[in-house]
Structure to design on (233 residues):
């Protein structure tokens, strides 16, 4: 199953050698995944059976990790308050690419039973790219296991590329973040520089919202703000 929630181009220009190397890398990567489980909601309780002896996800090549920098999968296990979302975005940006996000439970899809709450968000994919949702309130451990297997397949087949969407469309993601946190919202991560590094700098990487980063730069340490965020290619 290919994700339908990312706008990353299906076909990128790659040499034959690069395609072969990517295929090998994806095959190996899919069998060695570390999960950073960000247990924000009720779903946290369904995860232990998956990673311990009951279902033993490690036999598949998936096990927990305690830091974002070594993690491949960011697992959001339920509703997210606005305050918590800030930490999730910071965590996501600290993870090294390629990285994958799984939204567990209805709350990450549409707000779930908290959809009327003033304190929680409704659609996780507006703020960070989501590779896969595990629907339910809460999905059972068997469903989680199935979801992990599906993600492994997607990675192996080269179809888990939502992380690229964050670079190609950073201005839009930042716009949603600013709408929630205020126009002076920023993180320590230089996402635009990373987009250039990965050669994923697109037409929508910068725009009106990234321009606000420069506008409010004087409020924080200006020497950390690179010149290119003012919109110069
Ligand atoms: S989806 Fe259901 S179980 Fe999960 S956090 Fe929301 S209310 Fe709780």
């Amino acid at each position: 199953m290919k994700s339908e929630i990312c706008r990353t181009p299906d076909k990128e220009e790659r040499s034959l050698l690069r395609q072969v190397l990517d295929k090998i890398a994806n095959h190996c990567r899919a069998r060695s995944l570390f999960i950073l489980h960000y247990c924000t909601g009720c779903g946290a309780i369904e995860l232990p059976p998956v990673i311990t002896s009951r279902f033993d996800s490690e036999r598949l090549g998936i096990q927990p990790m305690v830091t974002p920098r070594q993690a491949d999968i960011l697992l959001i296990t339920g509703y997210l308050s606005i305050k918590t979302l800030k930490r999730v975005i910071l965590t996501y940006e600290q993870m090294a690419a390629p990285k994958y996000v799984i939204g567990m439970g209805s709350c990450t899809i549409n707000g779930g039973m908290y959809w009327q709450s003033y304190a929680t968000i409704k659609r996780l994919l507006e703020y960070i790219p989501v590779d896969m949702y595990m629907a339910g309130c809460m999905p059972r451990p068997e469903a989680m296991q199935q979801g992990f297997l599906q993600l492994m397949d997607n990675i192996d087949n080269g179809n888990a590329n939502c992380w690229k969407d964050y670079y190609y469309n950073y201005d839009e993601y930042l716009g949603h973040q600013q709408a929630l946190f205020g126009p002076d919202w920023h993180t320590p991560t230089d996402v635009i520089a990373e987009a250039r590094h990965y050669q994923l700098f697109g037409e929508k990487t910068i725009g009106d919202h990234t321009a606000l980063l420069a506008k409010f730069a004087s409020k924080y340490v200006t020497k950390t703000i690179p010149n290119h965020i003012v919109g110069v290619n």
About this structure: The domain at 16-160 is CATH 3.40.50.12280 (Rossmann fold). The mean pLDDT is 88. The chain has two domains: 16-160, 169-230.
